[in-house]
Every structure is written in C-alpha cells, then in structure tokens.
Amino acid sequence: MNGKTRVLLFGCGVMGQKIAAALLRKRSFEIVGAVDIQPALAGRDLGELLTPPRTTGIRTDSDPGAVLARSKPDAAIVATSSSLALLAAQIRPLLRAGAQVVSSCEELANPRLCQAVLARP
Q1: How many helical (H) and strand (E) elements, i.e. helices and strands, does the chain have?
Q2: Whole-angstrom Cα distance, residue 93 to residue 95?
Q3: How far apart are CA 57 and CA 34, in angstroms?
Q4: Res 111: pLDDT
Q5: What DSSP character marks residue 47?
Q6: What is 73-89 written as a DSSP string?
Q7: From CA 32, how far away is CA 104, in angstroms rounded?
Q8: What does the CA dihedral 31, 43, 47, 84 come to, rounded to 10 degrees?
Q9: pLDDT attached to residue 2
Q10: Could you list the mean pLDDT of each consecutive 10-residue stretch along the chain, which spans 121 residues?
Q11: How far apart are CA 66 and CA 2, in angstroms?
C-alpha cells in the first residue's frame, strides 16, 4: 500500500478536468480510473484533456461498471450533473462498492429538500 487515496473520476468535462489537474498535483491521491460517456472524451488519455496536455496513462472509459470493477477506488469524485435525479444511478454502484463519493452536484447539499424520494436510504 502506498498510502494514497485511490480515486475514480466520474465525468471528464470542464469540471472533471479541473479536478483531475488538482488531484495530479497532490501526492496523497492516485487517480485509478476515469469515466465519461461523451464519445469525444472516452478512450483518450486523461492527460490529453488537461491544459497543458500531458500523458498520465489513465485512459478514460465509457463503461462505469468496468472501470469500477478494475480500479477498486477508495473514493469517487462525480462531476457529471447538477441534477440528483440524473446522478443517483451513477452514484449508487459506487456506494455499493464501498467508495466514498464526493460530487459537484448542487442538489446533494440538501437532497431531502430537492429530491425527498431519492434521498431515502
């Protein structure tokens, strides 16, 4: 064990790219997988999406289940949507796999207020 928190990045758009760049600067985190369903982003080295571009050896994948199974993250950062209704299907498998989840989804700040049914355990 290298003492680093293993992180899965879910969403490699503008917000995800900024998060990836920040994580790559930190010694305490290791990006172990990246997911994006957009054809223009999936299949590319994560570093190609960053400014300045670089090689990271982390290939973005459009199949979240496959990435989750192979990466076995400690945590996932989800930067895909501001809607909890859209995000719920993405975060449930992460939680079932035991990953801690952090998200840029504003509705997660108070899910019972925004989506009472989805917020139920």
Answers
A1: 5, 5
A2: 5
A3: 11
A4: 80
A5: G
A6: -SEEEE-S-S-HHHHHH
A7: 19
A8: -60
A9: 74
A10: 90 97 97 95 95 96 95 97 90 94 89 78 69
A11: 23
Rounded to whole angstroms, how far apart are CA atoms 115 and 6?
29
Q: Which residues of 19-42 are buried (b: 16+ CB within 10 A; e: fewer)?
A: bbbebbeeeebbbbbbbbbeeebb
Q: Reduced to 3 states, what is the DSSP secondary structure of residue 56?
A: coil
The owner of tokens 């223009």 is: 40
Collapsed DSSP state (helix, strand, coil) of residue 45 = strand
pLDDT score of 107: 84
| Separation of alpha carbons 37 and 89, rounded Å | 14
Stated pTM of the model: 0.90
Residue located via tokens 């920040």:
22
pLDDT score of 63: 95
Distances in whole angstroms, Cα of residue 71 to Cα of each of 5, 32, 108: 12, 6, 25
Q: How far apart are CA 83 and CA 27, in angstroms?
A: 31
